[in-house]
Design brief:
It is a single chain. The protein has 303 residues and is of the alpha+beta class. It contains 6 helices and 18 strands.
């Protein structure tokens, strides 16, 4: 049977930047195994299959696959699917802002679509879960060895590595500067020894550029992703990592994250976190997307 699909570049305002995504607007009649094989065939960071929502007030249900695993939640597929469905008329747009809710494995995910001249130009999701902080990570020496860095490249003490999840767990590793960021290479043998069974096996390396501007890289060998150009789920968890370290008690904190630059796929993610009485009460991440292509795929019956 033939299925229609679209591709988009997410967290960018121009084609061939950002993070590529494939979206199948109607995944009905596809089995889980067929979806896994389609995602492996396309070999993008993620492929999304869209289904009717199970609850009447929700917009659609999404299933998200990497080339090797299904994810309960992911940021760039959520943002990109909202853009694709709005662009092809599957979501009716209001004049300025359209609010929708996607059902994902992690639960309902609210998305806000900004509209200009009848077109979607920016989408922002609200993290489905507040930050959960994981167990202590492996030693700085093991982290540095896994990233092919020197221990002195990593920041320590209160700004040192920590595992955080807003649905998908990441280990956040702050490094000194962009030069250290450029030298990162994941040593797969060291990763297998130190991280393959750790609570947060996905490694998110970042450096502060100035104030609230950051440069980041993300590596997820466990998901079959050598490096990801833009990672929305990680950006929500990063807001948890940074938010608890910010001394302000009541504020909306904002960050601009550059990711994918070392890969030649520059991406810009805009992140916000609301703090009240010293606690993080909500996190949002958003960005632009560009529709790139459309096509059909013949998906064989595996029965």
């Amino acid at each position: 049977m033939r299925y229609r699909f679209y591709t988009a570049n997410v967290f960018t305002d121009r084609a061939f930047g950002g993070n590529p995504l494939a979206v199948f607007p109607d995944g009905r009649d596809l089995s889980s195994e067929q979806m896994r094989r389609v995602a492996r065939e396309l070999n993008l960071s993620e492929t999304v299959f869209v289904f009717p929502a199970e609850r009447p007030r929700h917009t659609r249900r999404l299933r998200i696959f990497t080339p090797s695993a299904e994810l309960p939640f992911a940021g760039h597929p959520t943002i990109g699917t909202a853009h694709v469905l709005a662009s092809i008329g599957e979501i009716a747009l209001e004049r300025d802002v359209t609010n929708i809710v996607f059902e994902e494995g992690v639960g309902p995910v609210p998305v806000r679509i900004r509209v200009q001249d009848g077109r979607p130009v920016f989408a922002q999701l609200a993290a489905p879960r507040l930050p959960e902080f994981g167990p202590p990570p492996p030693s700085l020496e093991k982290i540095a060895a896994t990233l092919s860095l020197y221990p002195s490249d990593l920041l320590r003490a209160e700004v040192g590595p920590q595992a955080v999840s807003c649905g998908v767990p990441f280990l956040f590793v702050p490094v000194r500067d962009k030069e250290a960021m450029r030298r990162v290479r994941v040593n797969r043998e060291q990763w297998e020894r130190s991280f393959s069974s750790y609570w947060a096996p996905h490694l998110y390396v970042f450096a502060e550029l100035n104030g609230s501007s950051l440069r980041a890289r993300m590596f997820a060998p466990a998901l079959g992703i050598e490096e990801d150009p833009a990672t929305g789920a990680a950006a929500t968890a990063l807001a948890g990592y940074l938010g608890v370290r910010d001394g302000r008690s009541d504020a909306t904190l904002r960050w601009r994250i550059e990711q994918g630059f070392e890969m030649g796929r520059p991406s810009i993610l805009h992140v916000e976190a609301d703090k009240r009485d010293g606690a993080i009460i909500s996190i949002r991440v958003g960005g632009a997307s560009v529709l790139v292509s459309q096509g059909t795929m013949e998906v064989p019956d595996l029965a």
